[in-house]
Amino acid sequence: MTSAQAPGLHVAVHGHPNLDTLLLWHPAVRTDADAVGALASRIATRSGVRVVVPAWEDGRDLLRSVRYARQTAVHPPDQLSVVGYGDAGIAALSLAQHQRRLGIGLRRVTCVDGAADLTDPISGQPLAAPSAAPVETAVDVVASEDPAWAATTVTAWRAAGWAATLVPADQFTWRVNPSQ
After folding, report:
1. Does residue 102 lie in a domain region?
2. Is residue 178 scored above 80 in pLDDT?
3. What is the pLDDT of residues 159-175, one digit of tens each?
4. Which of 91, 97, 115 is nearest to 25 (CA)?
5. Which domain of life is it from (predicted)?
6. What does the buried/exposed string (b/e) look like for 21-58 if buried means 16 or more CB atoms within 10 Å of the residue's CB?
7. CB–CB of 12/2 below 8 Å?
8. Residue 28: strand, helix, or coil
9. At 24, is the secondary structure helix, strand, or coil?
10. Distance of CA 173 to the CA centre of its chain
11. Does any domain span residue 136?
């Protein structure tokens, strides 16, 4: 693991720098950075990716972390994958929706522990209904905290033309505590 300082943002990087980049947005980085670091290390080792973990407080930090991950990627920056937990998962979905407007491209976004009552920390708004898919970004929603919301969300994304997948909670292993 290496630690780096992006302008106004502390990030930890796990994995080899020449690998594809996965940006990991986990709210527990604020309270248990070591556990999130261990998760990032497991992901990097088992998945063969470079994992960038920002110490984020708000939506501005999340956007700065996207910029950092893209600027430091060896591979094309539009091949970035983003995994977000809780409200950061909602932010990952929103990022997918707005990537063209933001001038970025994403390979895949994953929302873990999403729910209807969470808002996007970047916009401060609830997640909008997805519009037609102008890009080929894969979308995964893990059926964990609110399985009904996850299933409804995937159905809406598919109806809008996105390649969306509902991931059963028991098949998702990227948890801070492997027993979760």
Report:
1. yes
2. no
3. 999 999 999 999 888 77
4. 91
5. Bacteria
6. bbbbbbbebeeeeeebbbbbbbbbeeeebbbbbbebee
7. yes
8. helix
9. strand
10. 15
11. yes
Q: How far apart are CA 28 and CA 166, in angstroms?
A: 23
Residue with the bigger pLDDT between 45 and 6: it is: 45
Detail the DSSP E strand segments found in the chain. 2-6, 9-14, 21-25, 50-54, 80-85, 106-112, 138-143, 163-168
Structure tokens at 88: 């950061």
Neighbours of 69 (CB within 10 A): 24
**Token couple for 93:** 């979905």
Is residue 180, in this structure, part of any structural domain at all? no
Q: Given this model, what pLDDT does residue 6 score?
A: 60
pLDDT in tens, 29-55: 999 999 999 999 999 999 999 999 999
In a domain, 76, yes or no: yes
Strand order in the sheet with 9-14: 2-6, 9-14, 50-54, 21-25, 80-85, 106-112, 138-143, 163-168
Residue 161 DSSP symbol: T
Residue 14: CATH number of its domain? 3.40.50.1820
Give me 98's structure tokens: 């707005």
Q: Report the amino acid identity of residue 171.
A: Q
Confidence label for 8 from pLDDT (cuts 50, 70 and 90)? confident
Q: Which domain holds residue 63?
A: 2-171
